[in-house]
Amino acid sequence: MAITKTGSAKYEGLGKSGKGHVSSESGALKDQPYGFNTRFEDGAGTNPEELIAAAHASCFTMALAFQLGDAGYENGTLETTAKVSLEKDGDGFTVTRSDLTLTGNVPEADQAKFEELAKKAKENCPISKLLNAEITLETNFSS
């Protein structure tokens, strides 16, 4: 089984004065503003690191929920925060890490089993894998 989901971004103007909008196929994001001021200042809108953090937290949490379900646990709650770090790297920037913080309440599980399944979910959630994946690029240019 393979599925493909789409996100899109448009940027008008260049450099710090440019303004962008990001949208998702589902419509959960529709023309959400982003740009220099939302990434490096306190401007209203979103930024790539925040979107990656939300994607990583939600993917990991869902993966763990399925791991726990497959292990026979039926009840509980999971809450994850992901903090994605963007650091200066020479003339540019690099996303250097994603720190996951998990709070879980699974009454039937013990801590060792919970931590074992959480580690497995972290290693196998598709977004964790994506952060180490090959990235391709196709360009179409006009002037």
UniProtKB/TrEMBL annotation:
Gene Ontology MF terms in the entry: peroxidase activity
InterPro entries: KH_dom-like_a/b, OsmC/Ohr_fam, OsmC/Ohrsf, OsmC_Ohr_Peroxiredoxin, Peroxiredoxin_OsmC
Transmembrane regions: none
Origin: domain of life: Bacteria
Biological process (GO), any one: response to oxidative stress
Gene3D superfamilies associated with the record: 3.30.300.20
PANTHER family from the UniProt entry: OSMOTICALLY INDUCIBLE FAMILY PROTEIN
Name of the protein this chain belongs to: OsmC family protein
